[in-house]
Design a protein that fits this description.
This is DUF8040 domain-containing protein. It comes from Colocasia esculenta. This protein has about 110 residues and is an all-alpha fold. It has six helices and no strands. The chain has one domain. About 70% of the residues lie in helices and about 0% in strands. The chain is globular, with a radius of gyration of 13 Å. The model is unreliable at about 20-25 (pLDDT under 50).
Length: about 110
């Protein structure tokens, strides 16, 4: 995959997130975007919610928080780009990334 295709895939992922299709994306798209099958994404999100590690906040859904972690870990996308795509501050992106990461490590 060349760099242009890579960034197009990342942009498609952001569009996918903002169109609220994360809960039921096409299997190929989900895997290439988040590096997990859609059913695993949903199970992980639900497990983190069940354990009390992850919850919707006033401005960010639990799904979006998990997506930020998986995009940053799976693709190496930096905070600056995530901040721009998700339209949250660097501090918010960083806080949610760290909270979800600690939650994943705890389970």
């Amino acid at each position: 995959m060349d760099e242009e295709d890579y960034w197009q895939e990342v942009d498609d992922t952001v569009i996918l997130l903002h169109s609220s299709q994360v809960s039921s994306p096409a299997p190929g798209r989900s895997y290439s975007s988040f590096r997990v099958h859609p059913s695993i994404f949903v199970k992980l999100r639900d497990k983190l919610i069940e354990k009390g590690v992850l919850q919707d906040t006033k401005n960010m859904s639990a799904t979006e928080q998990l997506a930020i972690l998986l995009l940053e870990v799976g693709h190496g996308i930096g905070n600056r780009l995530l901040r721009e795509w998700f339209q949250h501050s660097s501090e918010t992106i960083s806080r949610h990334f760290n909270n979800v990461l600690m939650g994943v490590l705890a389970i």
